[in-house]
Amino acid sequence: MSFPLEARAALTVLIILAIALELFSLSGGLILKETVKACMSAALALLSLYLLLYYLYSAILDRYTALKVKGELFLALPILILAFLLRKSFPLLKDGEEGFIISYGLLALILYCLWFLVKLTLKKRYLEIAICLIGDIVMIYAFIYKKLIFSDSIWEKLIFAALFALTLSLIRLRVPFVYFLILMLILLFTPLKEEPINWKPLIEKGEKLIESSEDLARSISYQFSELFKLPGYHSGYSSLENTGGSLTMSERTELKLKTMDRTSFFYTDEESGKSYRVKRAIYLKGVKELEKEPLLDMLLSLYAHGVKRNDATLFARSSRLDISYEYLKTRDEILPENLIYLKSPSGDQAPFSKKEHKRGYELNTRFLELDYGSPYLAEIIKKPVYDIKKTGLSYENMSSYAFEVYGISLRDWINEEDYKLWQEKDRAMEEYLLTEGSGERLKDLALEITKGLDSEYERSLAIEAYLRQYPYRTDTKSLIGGSSADPEGMSKMTEDFLFDTGAGYCVHHAVAMVMLLRLNGIPARLNIGYRYVFPYEKQDSYELKGSSAHAWPEAYISGFGWVGFEPSSIYSTSVERTWHRHPPKNKGEAQGEGEEGYREKYKDILYPTPEVNFYESSYAAIDREKIRTFIKISLILLLTLLMVFLLTLLGSGALKLIRYNRADMAAKVILDIEDIKRILLKRNDKAFNDRGLISDYLPLVPKSHIKEAEEAFAIYYRIRYKYKENSKEKVIVSPLELLKVRTLRDQLKSLKKRK
Amino acid sequence: MKISFNKAGSIIYILSLIAGLVFASFYGGSLPFLILYGLIFILIISIIYVILSYRALSIYQELDSHRLIKGEKHNYLLTLENTGKLPIHNIELNFHLDRCEIEEIKEGCSLSLEAFERKTIESKAFCLYGGTYDIGLKSIGYRDILGIFTVTVNIAYTFRAVVSPRISQIADPFLDIENTVNSIGIKSSLRREEIPGNEMRKYIPGDPLSRVNWKVSARLEDLMVRMPDKLDISMITLILLAVNLPESSFDREFLIRRDRFLEFAISSVWHFVRLGMPVDVIYPSDHITRTTISSYEEFMDFYNILSGAISYSSKEEEDKLLSLAGERREAINGYETSLIITEAPSEEEDFCVISS
User: Which of A146, A175, A200 to mutate to test the interface with B (most CBs of B within 10 A)?
Assistant: First the structure.
């Protein structure tokens, strides 16, 4: 046995010992770490000494004699040396005690037995494989379930390295073991990490790479978007001014938002006592001119209602939002309503500069965010108070009121001159009441919906509720005419939408609401911009895709100002999205607690609010449409496949016929014989090995046709093999011979049919 | 050098590596990282092992003679020695068995060598074709430890053999057939042909009328005919149009063609030498070489050198030989007969053409 094989045997002994100790521990046996250490140290020292002696002696013997080394002889010597070395460290072996000799004798005996067993296993391969397999399973199990008795020690590494080398050597049995021994030694000296591989930096880099590639692709498409405009409409801010055919959802990022404010609101349902969470939604309006009046109208209304700070924060709050333009080209400013601060940090372009804004254009805003779903605000809107006129509230008073209720500095936003202008000039509402082109049917419907309702706000809500019954559908083709640009177009669009298609997307719902409001005498206008629902978790920035572009109506409610509505059934209404803020029940309870307090209060949130229930009804129509389209496409595909199959079948038949007709006599015979072979193979049920010899087919021929077949095959052989190589002379086949072959073919074919 | 991958081995290794990565990604500590590093290191060790094996392996080939005869068995000795300290495992020996068979050796046989071990293979080799080409060991394939890839390296010093074709009578049927159809040139074993001479004799019934000399018959008043005279027939010229190909393209097809070409050429020369007719052989041996063979000794000298001699020093030499063959093919002068043997005839050409 050579040195590498001796080393292999030594490692196997070590592994057996480790498995035995591990199994003993796994089966519930108590074993001290010191005992494990001592056992393994003893075995390793013994085997190392043995290997060293073996190597030295075999080197000497090889050099000077022709004798072969007997491994077993060297085992005795290390044991004797070890007896003295380990007498103190080995707990079983106590120097001076009577049991010392017996214990040491036992250890030596065990090692001797193991040694011989291993020598045996090296000859019986399956035993060695079994040992290795058991070792692998035991060690992996013990490692995964943290039951390894060798854990956190050099033994762990040694045993695993030895086991790995032995397993590999058994897989690659014929490869010299010395290479696996080298591998084991390298592994022993390789530092191994305790922590799992951290892929995060790599994933982040990968994501960055993907993002930058996406950015590049988008930049290219953005640059060329003006050059290659596709037919149809892709959802997106610019497209919503059109109103025509089908709408394709675009996933191109058009805006990026940054905000430090919370993205969801927590509340406790009073009935069930459970806590819920509702996502924050925001509407961003595309405007060409800055409107400061609506803020003043709203503040005046609150002032008139005598709303104090505590009540005011139930339905409104001051928010911050940074907006940056991505793949969007427009002159419009995309802004939230009720602005109280606006600045562009880009520097090169000021807001409302009438220049086309491109990617990278940024806007920093602060605004008063209103919860139109709040019952407290609804009460204010519903019951306007006209006691205080615009002129009755001075600039100073309004400023101090705004600061008192919301902490906003109105002076920084609106100067006195502008304020006076607002006070003196009444808003012209005529343009928001135009209904040209509306038919009687539409007028009747408008009045029918709001029958019996007095307040403008209630009528508006009724119209919103009515329109929300109409399914949302982007695939309107060109069934809805008109446009949102003028009253006639809006009337046409409303009538087409309400009376013809009965389904449409946000533009159609919004235009219809505008027209129905106007027909009820409520000034209304169409807003185009974005509707974005924030995710539950806060992010550094939020991307608004083209699919977030939206159109919605606004009604001018006397005594309050412009109020937005959501007639598209796919989106939730303001009531569904309300912040659920209520005044404190106890006097001591503070209203409007900070973020920390808010979080603390709602830390045990049970269920998120089912935010998307409104998808169900409107998407049912889309699903039905999808199923119809799917069936249609499947049928077309099936028919096409059938056609291709038939054409292939007919084409191959026709080709065969042409080939046969154009062929000379000899070629015709060859083709006929090929046919005969095919027929015979089809008739044959048993396995047939085609060696390329026609004579092999003879046993397949029915007995009644053997003679004819022999003749035909003879003709075939003559054609195939008679002519000399390189000779251009062709074998002549008589028509009679061809007739014979063809008759045989036809007869066999008819036989096949009969069968 | 060629590196080929074992599909199954590679897939198993990649899957194991992925499994090791997954294991190490979920669990830290000695076992997962040991498996992962072990799988990586074993590949590195494999590559180093292949390089070391390549450097440590020495090869010696011996054959009892450099001048061989097609089909004859010759003693072949191959010695492989591992000069390194590590064993070399399962190397693949690839021989030129398509042209020279070696007894008891099959294509792709394997061999392992312990450290400093030497192994010798003694066998008999016999070449299948005439010509000059490499025989014996062609390349060694070093297989890696895991059975993933094999690096095949051509051996640096190949064993080159000059194999003479057999002296056969392959050309005889062709030349005999020509004899029956061609009335000029090679008609019989005689080296002379009959022409009407100046001597006269009396007419004997059966003499062709064309031999009657009418003037003399009129003067002598008896029919007189001319006696036939013997004229030395023209010299046979054999032109060997060998192809000019680089040695790298000496594949089996080429060797078979070259073998047939050489055997036919030797057979043709032997045919004329047996008839006692001198043959003028023109063949390429770097330059265009012309040698006259009229005796058995001259034939044997020619036979011994022909296999190793055929080569062109330049393209010009080839063109020169081609134009010479072209001239001879078209020349009709009755006194000079040329036999043109073309090694790689085109579709319009014949392998052997006789022109006179």
Answer: A175
